[in-house]
Every structure is written in structure tokens, then in C-alpha cells.
Amino acid sequence: MREQALAVGYAPASAREGFAALLDLDHQLASILQSTTEPMIGQMRLTWWYEALEKLDREPAPAHPVLQRLAESVLPGGVRGVDLAPMIEGWEALLDDGEALG
To answer: Which of 3, 23, 37, 56 makes an SS bond possible with 102, Cβ 3.0 to 4.6 Å?
Structure first.
């Protein structure tokens, strides 16, 4: 996480909050692979995130800090939740390969 804080510090001031929110999302998705021992459970959790990101385009962000942060600092810049959802697919590929399960 120190590397991420350093990277955020080098981002332009106007982009820092959004960049940090995207890194938070990536960290949240990585933690799914790190904390699950059953691929099906990991897939269910990733599917929840996929759907939650897509819903950001039509509903207020739910009471999850990462989703709220994305809604506040990334979406106003013109990025849609549906644009973020493909991040999930990258993590699904790692899950399918058995990367870092449990």
C-alpha cells in the first residue's frame, strides 16, 4: 500500500482522488482472490462487484466506502460504472487460473 500512496502522490492534484479510488477498487478485488479458497465463492463475490459497478450508472452508490468513493471522485469525470466493470474480468481470469487462492 505504500507504493500506491506514493503513486497517488505523483498524480496531478486534480486526479488524485479518482486515482486513489481506482486503486482502492483494485485492492478490494485482489483481496477476494487472496481470501477465498473456493473458486465458486470468489466468482460470486466478483459478480457482486461487477453488478454493483454497473448499478452506479443508474442508482446511488450503496453504503460501501469503495463504491461511494468511486461515485464521488471517478464518475463525475465522465467514467461510467459500466466502464469500470471490465476490471472484474481481469480478476476473474486470475481466479479461473487458480491464482493466489487462499
So the answer is: 37
Angle at CA 50, nearest 5°, toward 47 and 51?
90
Q: pLDDT digits over 13-55, tens only?
A: 777 898 899 999 999 999 999 998 889 999 999 999 999 999 9
Residue 81's closest CA among 41, 39, 43, 51? Answer: 51
> Look-up: residue for cell 461511494?
68
pTM for the full predicted model: 0.86
Domain ranges of the chain: 2-96
Q: What is the DSSP letter of 19?
A: H
